[in-house]
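step 4 of 6: structure.
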Amino acid sequence: MNWKQLALQNRKATIGFVILVLFILVAILAPWIAPASPTSMEFQPWLRPSKAHLLGTTAMGQDIFSQLIWGSRLSLLVGFSVGLMTTFLSLVMGLTAGYFGGIVDGILSAITNVFLVIPGLPLMIIIAAYMTIRGVFPIIVVISVTGWAWGARVLRSQVLTLKNRDFVLASRVAGEGPLRIIFSDILPNMLSLIMANFFGSCLYAILSEAGLEFLGLGDVNVVTWGTMLYWAQNNMALMFGQWPWIVAPGICIVLVGTAFALINFGADEVTNPKLRRR
Amino acid sequence: MRYLLYRILLLLLTAWVALTVNFALPYLMPGDPASVMVAKFQGRLEPQAIKALSIAFGVGVNESIFQQYLHYWGRILRGDFGTSLAYYPTPVSRVLGQAIPWTLGLCGTATILAFIFGSGLGIVSAWRRGSRLGDGLVPLALFLKSMPQFWFGLLTLYVFGFILGWFPLSGGYAITSAPGAARVLSILYHSFLPGMTMLITALGGWVMTMRNNMISILAEDYITFAHAKGLSTRQIIYHYAARNAILPSFTGFAMALGFVVSGAILIERVFSYPGVGYMLYQAVISLDYPLMQASFLFITLAVLLANFFADLTYVFLDPRVRSERAGS
């Protein structure tokens, strides 16, 4: 199964991909779409939504619609970067543990289980609280380091079922080394699972990022959907009746999150025929 | 027995890791955050307090890191978490002790209800697959799963608290309420919105898990056989399918609980609910490291224990795990 097949065959995945592509386009085209700079405070504060300001302005006189468009850049960047990093970590842990078995598996599985049980956000919060540098990169690292365990467990069990299949045994008898067996026999056969895992991680990343930034633990001076929510909450946007400031970034997070979840679910349906519509 | 032993060992190992991470983080981070903190409170607290703080975080202490680690363990085992800086001079244990019942009550109730309702909806969704109800639940559950819980909290607070004015905007209870029945009612009243937010946002995960398990099990031969025997639909769902499908939900408990707890921290912040999550948030904001460490430890250990008990329940529910125990 490849991307194209998944996107076209499964209706849920198709919808997910369409939403995601739209947001990626918005992020790329931000300088041309956004009517104003996201950081300039040239407008009057607390302007209601109007033709000039589709979603109104913030307490500091920034255009909310422009912030929303520019915010998609870093928000998506964090989502995809964490997705890649987490998937990479899960793969390394899962493949090694599953393929080599024995004591290696014992140790790696114990580490995985430990990380699986320690709740993510509290750990992220205290790590972020001690960090003296604030920014997007530390956020990516923190979320990835705390979020790889579930994927590692899933991938490991898949490796366990694959490594005793005939074609793998054949390679082993033919004298292939472990690296070659892993990369040319096992890995290609679990691509769909890895893909599902990647999109699941992206969803996790988008939500965690929003949470951390909402608490003010990111760099509050950059524009992302999470920091928009932080500033909106700290300026009591809702009490001033400026609901677009809170509602709009939230809806973007939900849409991107749902897109990730739909693709993840679609990939699941394709790999597990039982889940498919009869 | 092996299963049980492994779980106990894992519990101890994880607790040790959590405690050690808690100790080591300030030392691992660049920029020496502990010194920054001590410097920040210099002159604002009594000299003894500064000294205690310096010792606790190893600032300007002539001890090896290993000795400090041992002292840290000594303090933890004695239940001495130091003095809160934000609520100076109240001991951290007292500050935290006041917050714990709020979180346990709110989070515990919401988690259990979400588990019951979510799994129930998952059963319905799997059984009625192909109908509008069954398939409509899937996008709804995915949507709930992809929503930042705190954002949903902000919206409910705005609509039901601010615009409609049906519920209070913050706090755990009205200070004006008389102790006794009125106080209990006030507490329930204040916990309704945060509780509902947690419940609704946590539903999605349980629905999806249960639905996927149910669908796999409904394809098994023994279900077909039960149909052939002429058993009623009710009997097949509840006595044959759901009983087996619920089991993997217990092993997924760790993931779900982490989700609930993470959500709870943010939701408590949104509703200014006086629980441990809000405490952790305030500690972070005011650089109250002793309180922060203790809140983190409490949250993590509570999750570990809840998980451990979910695993034990699993042993009682699944005869296969039990027989493995008898066999070894």
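step 5 of 6: annotate
 - Chain B touches chain A through 59 residues (CB under 8 Å).
 - The two ends of chain B are 7 Å apart (CA to CA).
step 6 of 6: archive
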